[in-house]
Amino acid sequence: MKILMKFLAVAAAFGLGSGAAIAADAPAAAPAPVVTAAPAPEATPAPAPAAPAADAAAPAAAAPTKAPEYVSPVSPRANIGMPDGRMGIQHQVTPIGKEAQTFHDYILMPVITIISLFVLALLGWVILRYRRAAHPTPSRTTHNTMIEVVWTLVPVLILVVIAVPSIRLLANQYSPPNADVTIKVTGHQWYWQYQYPDHGIDLTSNMLPEAGEGQPNQPTRTDADGPRLLAVDERMVVPVGATVKLIVTSDPTGVIHSFGVPAFWVKMDAVPGRLNETWFRAEEPGIYYGQCYELCGSRHAYMPIAVEVVSQADFERWVASRNGTMPGAAPAATAAAPAPAATVSANASTEATPAPPATVNATAPANATNQAATGN
Ligand SMILES: [Cu+2]
């Protein structure tokens, strides 16, 4: 009965979750691109959307340069938030991840190990003890009620013991606390887009190529960015200890991706035309890497994810550096210069995607900035 209630709770969480996701998505279109006195590099016009190479999904060097006033206070740490060749689960930094890791390490693995060794020993004993040489006259026994009852009941009890923490974990995963930060994550071919509807921030995150690779003028990876094939030019930045709600979807003209960060115990499919919701609360500052987890095309392996977890104060500095505003705060220095929202949106060729906030060149086709070559 209790288990049934849990299932109902999970089902309710699904239903409510999707409704909330839609509601929370509404403000996404609201923040107008703020055209303030942007730092000079940000004003660089987007490159023409004509990069020809068919496979040039990797973006031109159009990703916004980092604003000078925000220097990341955290740097990648070996063995944390990235694969390191060890067996087992990555070090977990969220409550759900810790619960899952405990479940895996202290219940599932011991149970699996004990059962496997027990069956192996039983098999070895039968093979040796009852081989023809040692046991020439076979037994004619066909039934033993006691043994049959035991080998039916014991597995049932084992499954019940596993089911309790398993369903509790599932229910906790789908019962998020109220969100402190909401981020809409959109999978594109082949990069990620992060929109902070409450902060008016819209980022495009591309993998940083190695030196000598990539396109001309494209920034290349350094060790401060992270490991090869995981470092990106724009990280998703979130405050430490905050409940982050992710609304995960995919480019309407695109394919299915999957957003996942192993250190957070987060993985959610990104499906065109659908809003999926998940959440995490990272409790340790740092940089945590993930990848696309759904085979999505030729550059599936080159659309990594990097999440930067920083203090609240650093998060606010980062928001300011991206020309965003904290929810509830008066827009800084924009009152005198109303954003030409109409102009910008009139040029937007795709509907709901606000033009990147820092793109001052309102005459450039919206979204020509980063993935022009992909075209689709
Ligand atoms: Cu993908």
Task: Summarize the SSE layout with pairings.
Layout: H1 2-25, H2 95-129, H3 145-173, E1 181-188, E2 191-196, E3 201-205, E4 236-239, E5 244-250, E6 257-261, E7 266-270, E8 276-280, E9 286-292, E10 305-310, H4 312-321, H5 341-347
Describe this structure in words.
There is one protein chain. With 376 residues, this protein is α+β, with helices and mostly antiparallel strands. The protein has helices at 2-25, 95-129, 145-173, 312-321, 341-347; strands at residues 181-188, 191-196, 201-205, 236-239, 244-250, 257-261, 266-270, 276-280, 286-292, 305-310. The strands form two sheets. Strands 3-2-1-5-8 form a five-stranded mixed beta sheet, covered by helices on one side. The chain has a five-stranded mixed beta sheet with strand order 4-10-9-6-7. Helix 2 (95-129) packs antiparallel against helix 3. The relative contact order is 0.20. It binds copper (II) ion. Copper (II) ion binds at residues 187, 190, 257, 292, 294, 296, 300, 303.
